[in-house]
Amino acid sequence: MILDEITAAKRKELRRSREERKLSDLRAAARDAPPPRPFVLRQPGEVSIIAEIKRASPSRGLLRADLDPAGMARRYAEGGARAISVLTERNFFRGSPEDLRAAREAVPLPVLRKDFILEEYQLWETRVLPADAVLLIARLLEPPQLADYVALVREDLRLAPLVEIHDEEDLEAALEARAPLVGINNRDLDTFRVSLETTARLRPMIPAGTVTVSESGISTREALLLLRALGVDAALIGEELVCSADPARRIRQLRGAEDAHPGNPGRD
């Protein structure tokens, strides 16, 4: 499984990071980090867009050779994105913490750090970057560890924890951890098949008070309308925007604020 390869590489990277910078140093630096921006996604009658910045993916390879995180963030904000997600994983997505810093400095929107969080060290690292929210993948963490990390992120770091799930077992762990935001990943991690049926199946099981995000496979206005009908609060959209010739316009089209060209409702 590609997830196993990613986590193995991440553990090696973490060993090097801990040698270069101690956890105690990160905790000290966190005290001087700027205040997190509110990660507010729920808007009445609207599916908010979390626009993602990523250079590559394991399934498609390099997505955009000339990607400029600051410029892309400004285009996303111009189009009406509610928040920005930035891949910081180096080996498989070619991201970096520098990408996140550049994006956050360019716009006033809240920024989600999307990476493969395995240890507490990475959470303090996220606060220092600084990010405003962090992705926690339920499948990578034991349920007690997930609960501890959600509490740490919310109470000590004052960030928003977005807990990503793929099936009913993941959802149970997320709810037991009292996750305030749950992201339903429509991509099967074993086959890489993508289907919005995953969101349709799992959304009714999520309590009304929990903010729900649908991730992966969202590329049309029709998909956003379906998610709105399902009661989803936000959609995380990456490749559709990264590969667009005009990301700001594409976001407006997805939001219904601008018509797509006839016969071109999908990718630009």
Task: Summarize, please.
This protein has 268 residues and is of the alpha/beta class. It is 40% helix and 16% strand. Helix 3 crosses helix 4.
User: What is the terminal separation in angstroms?
Assistant: 31 Å
**Tally of discrete structural domains:** 1
Residue runs with pLDDT of under 50 for 5 or more positions: 262-268
Report the count of strand segments.
Answer: 10
Broad structural category: alpha/beta
The DSSP helix count reads 11
Commentary on this structure:
- With 268 residues, this protein is an alpha/beta fold.
- The chain has a single domain, classed as Aldolase class I (TIM Barrel, Alpha-Beta Barrel).
- It is 40% helix and 16% strand.
- The chain contains 11 helices and 10 strands.
- It has helices spanning 2-20, 23-30, 69-79, 97-106, 120-128, 143-156, 168-176, 197-202, 221-229, 239-242, 247-255, and strands spanning 48-53, 56-57, 61-62, 83-87, 111-114, 133-137, 160-165, 181-185, 211-215, 234-237.
- The strands form 2 sheets. Strands 1-4-5-6-7-8-9-10 form an 8-stranded parallel barrel, surrounded by 4 helices. The protein has a two-stranded antiparallel sheet with strand order 2-3.
- Strand 6, helix 6 (143-156) and strand 7 (160-165) form a beta-alpha-beta unit.
- Helix 2 (23-30) packs parallel to helix 5, helix 3 (69-79) crosses helix 4 (97-106) and helix 3 (69-79) packs parallel to helix 11 (247-255).
- Mean pLDDT is 94; it is low at 262-268.
